[in-house]
Design a protein that fits this description.
Order of helices and strands: EEHEHHEHEHHEEHHHEHEHEHHHHHHHH
Helix content: 40-55%
Shape: globular
Number of strands: 10
Radius of gyration: 23 Å
Strand order of the largest sheet: 1-10-9-8-7
Structural class: alpha/beta
Largest sheet: 5 strands, parallel
Length: about 550
């Protein structure tokens, strides 16, 4: 560790913070008063929804406690879901392993080393039924974190499961992530383009939106993921600008398909991050609500106020966690969860303190839920709508963030919008520069992190319980996939896959959800379905 890291605290010298800037670089004034902000605020539930999208907010209903979960086999994840419900979870956030997100079965060579490590391994319809065994999907809201084209396959499996349980699709409540830019980690461009062509993935995602709007009117069809963008190291302003711009791209593309904005906008949500600068995070969500409302009304011509509402799920940051003194992460997660509550978001995942090391243990998952429950029931922070509203500081900060976010949105729009910026490498460059800057801030001490670059305790005990996978889990999943595909009597699956292949090749292109649904019904696997489309497009996964 470089010498410039502050390793000790000199108690003979008065303390002073290294600077008075926010995480996004906004210089805070010494004090805020009526000269900084002197306006009137509309009530919560009123356009442009600065104070919240509902009049009574948490006084009417608390946010959904929705811990992202999933690991190993579907059987293991099913047990985890039941444990989380027993501990107080109120909604499901199911995450899959990377292979499933990329449309690969566990037996594919590039997938095998990662099977079940970052989330649940999913490839067959039977996997979906095992994952949700004894879970009342007609009464529980479910979020499935899959990008297209995997999102179409997983949604087909979920709808088929509901049908076989006698639950009509119109009763289902939940969200499909359905955003092809979800996996913005590592080499972001390659992670999103190496396994399926991005333009076709986008179109299949919109195919799914059109289909779900018709059959599952209570289902949220698209979750704009700015959380993973933020976790690459960008600040709150960039996170919000990229998220808003990506949302605008989706709206434009759906309108170009002939849909009226009011027919789908209220089924689009956002998935955002929450970081450590409490007031900036609260102001960020208030600014995003205001910008989205104005964009929908003034640019896209929405008439329904529901179309203008910025509905938001959040996960507290993993990027802020340290492997050093990992129990400090409990405090960080608590503050970020409080920021989310003070912001008035719709659902919260509190990241577990041990996630600097591994997937969370049950002990850490329980503590994360207890954090939300203590904040909800013991602190009083949910008893008042927009409790920080009217603060000179918060309102001035909201205005300033709104202005900065909107300036970036306009710049991204001039460059053709988020999707064009992604394809041109602009997004990749911004993220890479942000990663470098973030690391530089930590190393220089400009970004103080207790236990890491200030107040370091070289003798601190970092012993915590570490989650471990079953040693035979991956072998079991690989054998399962091989045996499944070697079963006799799969002629109907192959016929359905051929139909999907032909539908994908057809010009003009047709909505692919119905042939994907049929292939799923005939028990084609996730990769078989994605491969049928890849083959039709002449697309090969690089080796």
């Amino acid at each position: 560790m470089p010498d410039k890291f502050v390793t000790t605290y000199d108690h003979t010298v008065g303390e002073r913070l290294p600077h008075f800037r926010s995480l996004s670089g906004i210089e805070y004034k010494r004090i805020y008063d009526e000269k900084c902000w002197n306006k009137k605020l509309p009530d919560a539930g009123e356009y442009p929804f600065t104070r919240g999208i509902y009049k009574d907010m948490y006084r009417s209903r608390l946010w959904t406690r929705r811990q992202q979960s999933g690991f190993g086999t579907p059987e293991e994840s099913n047990e985890l879901l039941k444990f989380l419900f027993k501990m107080g979870q109120t909604g499901i956030n199911i995450d899959s392993d990377i292979a499933s997100k990329l449309g690969l079965d566990p037996d594919y060579p590039l997938a095998q080393a990662d099977v079940g490590l970052q989330g649940t391994s999913m490839c067959t319809y039977e996997d979906m039924t095992v994952l949700f065994k004894d879970i009342p999907i007609d009464r529980i809201s479910t979020t499935l974190i899959f990008p297209p084209p995997s999102s179409a396959v997983m949604m087909a499996q979920y709808l088929l499961m509901a049908e076989e349980r006698g639950i009509p699709a119109y009763q289902l409540q939940g969200t499909i992530m359905n955003c092809p830019f979800t996996q913005l980690v590592g080499p972001t461009y390659q992670a999103n383009t190496a396994f399926f062509p991005i333009d076709v993935a986008l179109e299949i995602g919109l195919d799914l939106v059109e289909y779900l709007l018709k059959v599952a009117p209570r289902w949220n069809v698209l979750n704009v993921n700015s959380r993973n963008i933020r976790e690459c190291g960008v600040d709150a302003v960039w996170e919000a600008a990229f998220g808003i711009s990506l949302g605008m791209d989706y709206v434009r593309r759906l309108i170009r398909r002939g849909l009226h904005v009011d027919s789908f906008a209220q089924r689009i949500g956002f998935f955002c991050a929450v970081h450590m600068d409490l007031f900036e995070e609260v102001a960020k969500f208030r600014a995003m609500r205001r910008i989205w409302a104005r964009v929908m009304k003034e640019i896209f011509g929405a008439k329904s106020e529901k179309s203008m509402q910025f509905r938001c799920a959040v996960q507290t940051s993993s990027l802020t966690f340290t492997a050093q003194e990992p129990l400090n992460n409990i405090v960080r997660a608590s503050i970020q969860t409080l920021a989310a509550i003070l912001s008035g978001v719709q659902s919260i995942h509190t990241t577990c303190y041990d996630e600097a090391y591994c997937l969370p243990t049950e002990k850490a998952q329980k503590l994360a839920l207890r954090t939300q429950e203590i904040l909800a029931y013991e602190t009083g922070c949910a008893k008042v709508v927009d409790p920080l509203g009217g603060s000179y500081f918060l309102e001035a900060l909201t205005d300033e963030l709104e202005e900065k976010i909107w300036e970036l949105v306009k710049d991204i729009e001039k460059r053709g919008g988020f999707i064009e910026c992604f394809k041109s490498g602009f997004v990749e460059n911004v993220l890479n520069e942000a990663r470098y800057r973030f690391a530089e801030q930590i190393e220089s001490g400009e970004l103080p992190i207790v236990g890491l670059n200030i107040f370091r305790d070289e003798e601190a005990n970092t012993d915590i319980e570490i989650f471990t996978q079953r040693p035979d889990m991956q072998r079991q999943r690989i054998e399962y996939a091989i045996n499944y595909k070697n079963k006799k009597g799969r002629d109907s699956a192959f016929r359905a896959l051929k139909d999907l292949y032909l539908a994908t090749k057809r010009v003009p292109r047709e909505n692919l959800v119905l042939p994907i649904m049929e292939a799923t019904r005939q028990r084609a696997t996730l990769q078989e379905i994605c491969d049928a489309m890849r083959d039709a497009l002449g697309f090969e996964i690089p080796h």
